[in-house]
Amino acid sequence: MVALTFDDCFLPDLVEPLLQDLEAVGARATFFCVGRVFRSHPELARRLVAGGHELGNHTLHHRMLAPRPDRRVIDTEIDGWQRAVEEALGGPYPTRWFRPPGMAGFTTEADPKILEAVRRRGMRVALWTLDVYRSLDRLGVRDPEKVAAFLRERVRGGEVVLLHVSTSNVEGARRVLPELAARFRLVTLSEMFPPDSP
Ligand SMILES: [Zn+2]
């Protein structure tokens, strides 16, 4: 099993072709879209859920919640995301995962205030094991072929892969999806880590 995760969704137009390719190979993924994207594109949330993909909380405004975590800001950002999703879906959504924007609060030890706020809402923090951003994007590499090669060479079973809804990441992932799907079951985070798992 491999869990592909796509963050931010600041370029929502890239999502639909990606979903078509995912669905063509029977794959599902987890999307940590920022809440405000669902406010302007509510149909995106509906489309993701209808396709069997999972949504994770990535705050309403992509707000870095550390190094000076403020309980009011943490609550507003986390609950604002949830409200944006439920408004877009027109009903409740049982969110299981929170991913801190910029990894803020989780770069070394988990920030206790943020962790407590996440747990109190029945969520868990979802980081990753394979980081396309740190390996390519942050170094200025925007070549889809490099993303494809990275995924082809580096993805192993059990991996949680951090990707973004960016042109290079989405294009690169689309190029290797058939190969990855032939090698692994591509699942959501909740399929990889069911609710009763430790
Ligand atoms: Zn992000």
TrEMBL record:
Record Pfam families: Polysacc_deac_1 (PF01522)
Domain of life, per lineage: Bacteria
PROSITE patterns: NODB
Matching SUPFAM superfamilies: Glycoside hydrolase/deacetylase
Single GO MF annotation: hydrolase activity, acting on carbon-nitrogen (but not peptide) bonds
A GO BP entry: carbohydrate metabolic process
Domain NodB homology: residue ranges: 1-190
Protein name in UniProt: Peptidoglycan/xylan/chitin deacetylase, PgdA/CDA1 family
